[in-house]
């Protein structure tokens, strides 16, 4: 079988469903962000800290993707917001149909923010549009500052890079400036936030970014409607 045409078909079907989802999210004023990183960079930990700090009446929900286990959803459900796990079986990324299926019984009018934690992988998730407004890439300081150059697609498509685990900087030979320069060689407008979930550093900047991004999204939606 010829793999390329089949892959093209899958991606164009995904793009169609993602476009429908994007329209629905915009119509209901739900900002959707898609968190992508290699396994273990700290996506769920960042979300734990985020949910812990958000006001209890914040209209936020989370979809967490993994090949197996409900572990991440269980970690995140403790904060009282709607959370669902998507277990993909063997698939190394989430796709738009999975999102469509898992939000089917959620009332989007009751949400302002939907955070998707993608399957830990720097390659496959970058090809699958989920109808999100923004992709966010996480890079931890233990991964090496060359990763934006090695995995350019996800750095090119993300508007924000969250540099995680900065508390480990004294213990690893990681050059922050070089990592940021590499990310901006791939994507010159890349915004960067440095966080340590262990110490709490940078979480304020991250929460501010989410708030600013939501305001920009609402303006963008209003301008399209007008
Ligand atoms: N030192 C340090 N460790 C951290 C920090 N954030 C996360 N970790 C640790 O990194 C490991 C992986 O964190 P997770 O949040 O599960 O990572 P993830 O990206 O969600 O992993 P997957 O969902 O499996 O891809 C855990 O042992 C965390 O405790 C941090 O800021 N500093
Ligand atoms: Mg996780």
Q: What does this protein structure show overall?
A:
The longest helix is centred in the first third of the chain and has 25 residues, at 3-27. Helix content is 42%, strand content 17%. The chain is built from eight helices and seven strands, in the order αβαβαβαββααβαβα. It is an alpha/beta fold. It has a seven-stranded parallel beta sheet, with helices on both faces. Magnesium ion is lined by residues 43-44, 72, 117.
Overview in brief:
With about 230 residues, this protein is an alpha/beta fold.
Major beta-sheet overview: 7 strands, parallel
Return Rg in Å. Answer: 17 Å
Q: Helicity, in percent?
A: 40-55%
Q: State the strand order across the main sheet.
A: 3-2-4-1-5-6-7
Bound molecules: guanosine-5'-triphosphate, magnesium ion
Mean pLDDT: 96
**Share in β-strands:** 15-25%
Ends apart, CA distance between termini: 48 Å
Helix tally equals 8
From the spread of the alpha carbons, the general shape counts as globular
Strand/helix succession: HEHEHEHEEHHEHEH
Task: State the total count of DSSP E strands.
Answer: 7
User: Helix- and strand-based class?
Assistant: alpha/beta
Q: Show unreliable segments.
A: none
Relevant terms:
binds magnesium ion; binds guanosine-5'-triphosphate; single chain; globular
Task: Chart the SSEs and their pairings.
Layout: H1 3-27, E1 31-36, H2 43-53, E2 60-66, H3 71-77, E3 83-87, H4 96-102, E4 113-117, E5 134-140, H5 147-150, H6 152-157, E6 160-164, H7 176-186, E7 191-194, H8 203-225
Parallel strand pairs: 1-4, 1-5, 2-3, 2-4, 5-6, 6-7
The structure holds guanosine-5'-triphosphate and magnesium ion.
């Amino acid at each position: 079988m010829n793999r390329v045409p089949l892959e093209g078909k899958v991606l164009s079907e995904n793009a169609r469903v993602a476009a429908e989802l994007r329209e629905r999210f915009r119509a209901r004023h739900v900002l959707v962000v898609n968190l992508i990183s290699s396994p273990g960079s700290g996506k769920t930990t960042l979300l734990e800290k985020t949910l812990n700090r958000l006001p209890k009446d914040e209209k936020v929900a989370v979809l967490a993707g993994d090949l197996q286990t409900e572990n991440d959803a269980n970690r995140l459900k403790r904060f009282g917001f709607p959370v669902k796990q998507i277990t993909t079986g063997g698939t190394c990324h989430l796709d738009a149909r999975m999102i469509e299926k898992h939000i089917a019984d959620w009332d989007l009018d009751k949400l302002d923010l939907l955070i998707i934690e993608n399957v830990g992988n720097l390659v496959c998730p970058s090809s699958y549009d989920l109808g999100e407004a923004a992709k966010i890439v996480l890079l931890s300081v233990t991964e090496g500052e060359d990763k934006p150059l090695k995995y350019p697609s996800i750095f090119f498509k993300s508007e924000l890079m969250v540099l995680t685990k900065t508390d480990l900087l004294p213990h690893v030979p990681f050059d922050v400036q070089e990592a940021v320069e590499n990310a901006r060689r791939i994507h010159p407008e890349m915004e960067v936030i440095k966080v340590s979930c262990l110490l709490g550093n940078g979480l304020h900047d991250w929460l501010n970014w989410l708030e600013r991004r939501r305001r920009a999204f609402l303006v963008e939606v209003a301008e399209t409607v007008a």
